């Protein structure tokens, strides 16, 4: 296990006039044994950040350390990390056992110890009955578990996960998410997990690093990121449907943006007069889309609350304790009153 330290990390791709800076000075400390999810939209630099920890990408400036060792110039194989990829990267002609054992054989680990370590990992991942099968004889979820098994047997200081669930269907994704959580509880190995899926980030992370165009907008617990987003970007990226961000609503001063989560708006005798434009059924709740002048509001309404007819004019009010204020220019959160 180990602390991972990012010190003012900058990454540029290309040379001379074609230089493209994609990471703009990220500093953060991942605690020993912590599970951190790096999240953000496509192209924000999250894989680049992970690949720099792995040693698969050079660091243009700044320092990354794992434990008490700066690893900028350490070969990937010497970094004591194990990485799990989106596409599993299993050897098709080898059994699951051999896939998991391969790295240990190369390291010259004695045969009996390989057996013990693979059996232990297979037990944790519920793969014991599948060890003699080839990858093609397994489901996607099972293949991903073998890929995780291969990482576990190496007993690394750090696990790196690069979108490992994105090839799985929704049900398997949810199940594998639970397995990864269990794995982390049992092994307690410092983990960095990259995803573009905010639900995955919220459910898996002890802390979430939200990346926005190469900048770390926020690094906090799921509760902090959801309840006190540091920027309008975090506010709209985390949560589905996203937070309402209003510039042109009564009570919003010029130069500021008012953020309200859909679940913090309710029908009320007082409040803004809006026109109901659309209603979406989600089972236990409904999403109501309503027009407020130039703005559209989305509300998340419990199924027990009667929903007005389409086109109806109704009044809605926000929970006053759950308002978020941002600077319209920088997008940054204004000090909470
Ligand atoms: N080898 C490369 N050469 C040049 N530019 C690159 C290279 N790899 C990535 N980039 C650029 O760096 C930026 C960040 O890419 P990165 O893959 O880290 O993003 P990401 O957030 O992981 O996105 P995705 O979810 O799509 O993988 C992108 O603009 C990308 O085009």
From TrEMBL:
> What superkingdom heads the lineage?
Bacteria
Q: Report if keyword Oxidoreductase is assigned.
A: no
Tell me the InterPro entries matching this sequence: AAA+_ATPase, ABC_transporter-like_ATP-bd, ABC_transporter-like_CS, ABC_transpr_MalK-like, ABC_transpr_MalK/UgpC-like, Mo/tungstate-bd_C_term_dom, NA-bd_OB-fold, P-loop_NTPase
User: Which molecular-function annotation in GO is an example for this chain?
Assistant: ATP binding
Entry keyword set: ATP-binding, Cell inner membrane, Cell membrane, Membrane, Nucleotide-binding, Sugar transport, Translocase, Transport
Native species of this protein? Answer: Variovorax dokdonensis
Q: Which protein is depicted?
A: Sn-glycerol-3-phosphate ABC transporter ATP-binding protein UgpC
Start and end residues of each ABC transporter domain: 4-238
């Amino acid at each position: 296990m180990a602390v991972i330290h990012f010190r003012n990390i900058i990454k540029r791709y290309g040379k001379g006039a074609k230089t493209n800076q994609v990471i703009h000075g990220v500093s953060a400390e991942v605690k020993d044994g912590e599970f951190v999810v790096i999240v953000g939209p496509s192209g924000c630099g999250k894989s680049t950040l992970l690949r720099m920890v792995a040693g698969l990408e050079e660091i243009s400036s700044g320092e990354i350390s794992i434990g008490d060792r700066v690893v900028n110039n350490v070969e990937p194989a010497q970094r004591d990390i194990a990485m799990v990829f989106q596409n599993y990267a299993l050897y098709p002609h080898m059994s699951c056992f051999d896939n998991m054992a391969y790295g240990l054989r190369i390291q010259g680990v004695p045969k009996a110890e390989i057996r013990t370590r693979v059996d232990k990992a297979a037990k944790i991942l519920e793969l014991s009955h599948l060890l003699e099968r080839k990858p093609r004889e397994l489901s996607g979820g099972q293949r991903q578990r073998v890929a995780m098994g291969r990482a576990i047997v190496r007993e690394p200081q750090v696990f790196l996960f690069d979108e490992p669930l994105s090839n799985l269907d929704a049900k398997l994704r949810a199940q594998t998410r639970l397995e990864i959580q269990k794995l982390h509880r049992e092994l307690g190995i410092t983990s960095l997990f990259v995803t573009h899926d905010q639900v995955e980030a919220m459910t898996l992370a002890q802390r979430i690093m939200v990346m926005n165009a190469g900048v770390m907008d926020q690094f906090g617990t799921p509760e902090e990121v959801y309840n006190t987003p540091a920027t309008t970007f975090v506010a709209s990226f985390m949560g589905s449907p996203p937070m309402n961000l209003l510039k042109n609503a009564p009570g919003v001063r010029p130069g500021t943006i008012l953020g309200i989560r859909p679940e913090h708006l309710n029908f009320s005798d007082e409040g803004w007069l809006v026109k109901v434009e659309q209603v979406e059924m989600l089972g236990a709740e409904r999403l109501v889309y309503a027009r407020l002048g130039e703005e559209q509001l989305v509300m998340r309404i419990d199924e027990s609350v009667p929903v007005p007819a389409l086109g109806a004019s109704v009044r809605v009010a926000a929970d006053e304790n759950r308002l978020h204020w941002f600077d319209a220019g920088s997008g940054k959160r204004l000090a909470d009153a």
